[in-house]
Amino acid sequence: YAIKSLEHDYIYVGLTNSIERRFRSHNRGYNYSTKPYAPFDLIYTKSFPSRPEARIHEKHLKSTSGKRFLRNIINGGLDLS
After folding, report:
1. Can you name the residues that pair with 2 across neighbouring β-strands?
2. In the beta sheet, which residues pair with residue 12?
3. Which residues pair with 44 in a beta bridge?
4. How many CB atoms lie within 10 A of CB 43?
5. Pairing with 32, which of 21, 23, 24, 73 sits 20 to 30 Å away (CA)?
6. Rounded CA gap, 10 and 71, in Å?
7. How many CA atoms lie within 13 A of 47 on its CB side?
8. Residue 31's closest CA among 53, 68, 3, 67?
9. Contact, 28 vs 81, CB < 8 A?
């Protein structure tokens, strides 16, 4: 999953087995790494049959091309870079 701060230029990428619980946790400031950037909007989710497959995709989303993909989603499909 990927979340975007509503008040800062910050995207967080992670993986979880409960997106609803994790998203609430980020927005309530329960996560040390994202607390300063709350509140968030959920911008991307994808399900996988196994945790290792999800981890591979998470690593991709954290790469330069993955961040470009997420920014493209935020910009409504327009690549403004």
Report:
1. 13, 44
2. 3
3. 2
4. 16
5. 73
6. 10
7. 4
8. 3
9. no
